[in-house]
Amino acid sequence: MDKYGFLDFKQISQTPFKQILDALTLQYREDNGKLVLDNAIIDIQKNLFFNPHSKKEESGSVIKFVSLYKNCSLREAAFFIKELAEKPTNDERKIPELTLVYHPYLADYAPEDLCKSLNVGICKEKGIMAKRICFKAGEHYVGFNPENKDWLFPKNFKRNTLWNIENCDKDIILITRDPFTALKLITKGYYYAASIMGASPTEEQKDIIKRYEYAFCD
Question: Is this model's pTM higher than 0.85 or not?
Answer without folding.
Answer: no
